[in-house]
Amino acid sequence: MSAPISINLASEPFRPVRSMLAVAGLAALLLTGLLGFLIALSVSEKGQAAQTRQTIAGLQSRLKTLSGQQAQLESVLRKPENAEVLDRSLFLNSLLYAKGISWTRLFDDLEKVLPYNVRLIQVRPQVNSLNQISLEMVVGADSSEPVIRMLTLLERSPQFGETLIHNRMPPTQSDPLLRFRISVNYAQKL
Fold this sequence. Notes:
- With about 190 residues, this protein is of the alpha+beta class.
- It has helices spanning about 15-75, 85-100, 105-115, 145-155, and strands at about 120-125, 135-140, 160-170, 180-185.
- It has 2 domains: about 20-80; about 100-185, General secretion pathway protein M, EpsM (Gyrase A, domain 2, 2-Layer Sandwich).
- The model has no long low-confidence stretch (mean pLDDT about 85).
């Protein structure tokens, strides 16, 4: 038994090219549509970028104008005849900032983080030049563990920030508590 031999006598064998051409044409059409979309998007972005540059240029010119006005006003304030008024103004502003600290809110916030066995002996708020409040406190306790717990509660609280222990004072005969002088950042809005 011999196997049948397939012989093609055509000079050009048949190939299914029509479906391949249809798929290639569809892909070309899709890519042309995508190119048109990207060109439209690019033109739109270019227009928005130009508008943004105009806005930035306007804001920069406004900033330059305001900086010039501020420099002019500061030069007037720096004159020797106005120095006394400037010093008094700075002093009054610092008093107003210090007066703006709410003691009720301060003690309410401290009550949330102070353990029952830690005594607040002294607290003094201070306002720096950036209008940030820091508290200088003296606390007392029978041992250092409650104070350490208070420090971790202070640092975890959203109202308080970084804490720093300045010194530790041993107990005396008149005061049997360990005393710690602590400073902490406080986030009360002025």
